[in-house]
User: Fold these one by one.
Assistant:
Number 1:
Amino acid sequence: MLIATLITELRKEINRLDVMGFDELSAARITTITKNMISRLLKSNKKAYIEIAKEATEEASEDIKELTGIAVKPLKTDEAFIAAILAAYNPTTGYVYENEADRKRARLAEALIAAVLVGLRANYHKELQKFANLWHTQTKQYTITVVDTTRIETFRKNGIRRVRWETQGDEKVCAECGARDGKIFDIDKLPEKHYGCRCWLMPVREKDSKSES
């Protein structure tokens, strides 16, 4: 639900740019407009990620409680928690969140300025749609990152040292993830996920099984 809301906000931002008077736009104005747009999108995403993290730690806590039957120590999923995730290098995406956001902004501004200079409205619209797709992908991937990080940190905080890899069990599961399905891993030696991976991790008691790595 939160992701749907973020995508709706993204569409509003793109539409706002798309309906502006094409002939009235200048390089300076485009630069300012895109900076403001990215600032609003980043703010919306961070706010949503905090809520997503809260939901993720609640679900992880329920998984632990069901497994162990004991009370769970809550994980603090506040603005600082999300900021730390977004400020770290992400091995799956290959970049730092806000650095990539600024790179996408600069690329968009450059492309829009070029379209205005040559008077091609079609190119302007095309570049906006390209940016929207890229931002959507980045937003969705970091949702996965926030959920995974939150679950893992909740497990760690509550003494869980081993986790079981679970897939969605459908035809979209890739061969790599399919081979990991049901396997037990040490929480500090987890294999890296691929982009857009839908798999998740479940807590495992120490006595239940030896880890694969």
Number 2:
Amino acid sequence: MTIYSGCKIFGRSILILQGSKLGYEEPVTLKNCQLGPQVELKGGFFRDAVFLKNVSVGSGSNVREGTILEEESRVAHSVGLKQTILHFNFTPNQDKATPSLIGDVPRGVMLNQRPIFLGGQGGLVGPCRLEFGTVTAAGSIIRIDELRPGRLIFSGTGRGGSIPFMPGMYQNIKRIVLNNITYIANLIALMQWYAYVRSQFISDDFTEPLFVALKEKLRMAIDERIQRLKALSQKMPDSVIAYQNYTKENASSRILKQKNEFLERSDELEDYFRSQENIAVKENLLHFCDRWAR
């Protein structure tokens, strides 16, 4: 194990196995993380995460709780898991006259303006200005100024544009809920895989403490997603009002029913998720592994 100068390590549940390297490119801050063998964290901040054998993470990274990087995973520099990181590079003319202004200082310091939301996997091509209340769709590269408040900006392979944005309306709540259910179901399935299959392969490279930490982080992820879905359901009364105000006589009774049913059955949905966490699937999983091994 190699720990380069400037690194800081905190927490009672720290685990670092043989061959790992911390802080080769810049200092690492590590808190309550568990590292398998030959893990290389080149620089950045890491908290409540698990890194299995031969994981490599570049410098400038910010990896937070509930993160699991399995064997051989590779992460480039300046990557934030659950974070958005913006970069401003030199222009083709070798200058750096490309600052982007998101909101402004005079109103921003008062903390009474609507937030600006930048969707994931997107970016700003400076110099660019965005007004308070602006929302950029995921995957959009913003190249124009938007100085009108409360607008949704989108771009892609087709023609981009900007349309009014109504906070909290959730027009496609069914898709949002179904995708969340599918995601949580997959997390529960992965927990079963760890519990009944990965548990059979405890070794020097995959120790018992590392296995326990793995399940702990996955439990954090499941709990967080269930809580987020429950919190979303509590927004439905306001969402119904926002939707009716926006669509007026064109409001869809089907969409209104979906919103109300989501709120009414949110406790039932949570109880169902909890019941599935302890479902007995050991025999089926081991049977699958036996057939796969052949």
